[in-house]
Amino acid sequence: MIKLYAWHTPNGRKLSVMLEECALPYEIVKVNLAKREQFTPEFTALNPNQKIPAIIDGDVRLAESGAILIYLAEKVGRLLTPRYETLQWLMFQMAHVGPMLGQAHHFRLQAKEKLPYAIERYEKEAARIYGVLEGEVAKREYLAGEYSIADIATYPWILRHFNFGVQLDDYPALKRWAERIGARPAVQRGMEILAPLN
């Protein structure tokens, strides 16, 4: 059985959704970020970068959500087609969506000192990223054409628009894409299993 080490963040939910989509047996080991459990010696041994998610699958130990998504897609032979278009949009999520939206969230809501320059910079970048995604899903149902790990990786981030200074209603094609993905039973289970979205 796969052990998923995660918390109720977009990066954690990527993997719980993926495991539900793959119908693979798994158990969750919650790594409470508020209690800084990612810095324990036990978790650091699994992921020296001290970030969730991570998995153990028999002899396989993996961190980095993109790598885990590829591993699971290859394991079940699904959700990685068309391959290079899927990897392109997965890399977009890993390089732009997560890091930039994470910075918008941090400077808007978590930073002890409110820095107008940083807030404006990352809100603009969040709007730009939503615009890129809007343009793509206006042309087709899913990022790579077919439902894939690129959609699974991106979806939990897009739902958190209220943290990034973005209104999803301003991106109607992206909103329809999110509704389409959110209607999938596996996605619903994967989003709820760690904790309700708030």
How would you sum up this structure, described in words?
- The protein is of the alpha+beta class and 198 residues long.
- The chain has 2 domains: 2-78 and 188-193, Glutaredoxin (3-Layer(aba) Sandwich); 83-184, Glutathione S-transferase Yfyf (Class Pi), Chain A, domain 2 (Up-down Bundle).
- It has 8 helices and 4 strands.
- It has a 4-stranded mixed sheet with strand order 2-1-3-4, with helices on one face.
- Helix 1 (10-22) packs parallel to helix 3, helix 4 (83-110) runs parallel beside helix 6 (149-158) and helix 5 (116-137) packs across helix 7.
- The radius of gyration is 16 Å and the shape is globular.
- It starts with a strand and ends with a helix.
- The relative contact order is 0.16.
Main sheet strand line-up: 2-1-3-4
Low-confidence stretches: none
SSE string, helices as H and strands as E? EHEHEEHHHHHH
Distance between the termini: 29 Å
Looking at this protein, list some descriptive labels.
198 residues, alpha+beta, Glutaredoxin, Glutathione S-transferase Yfyf (Class Pi), Chain A, domain 2, 2 domains
Q: Would you spell out the secondary-structure blueprint of this structure?
A:
Elements lengths: L1 E5 L3 H13 L3 E5 L10 H6 L7 E4 L2 E4 L1 H12 L6 H28 L5 H22 L11 H10 L13 H11 L2 H10 L4
Parallel strand pairs: 1-2
Antiparallel strand pairs: 1-3, 3-4
Helix pairs in contact: 1-3, 1-6, 1-8, 4-5, 4-6, 5-7
Put the structure in a nutshell.
With 198 residues, this protein is α+β, with helices and mostly antiparallel strands. The protein has eight helices and four strands.
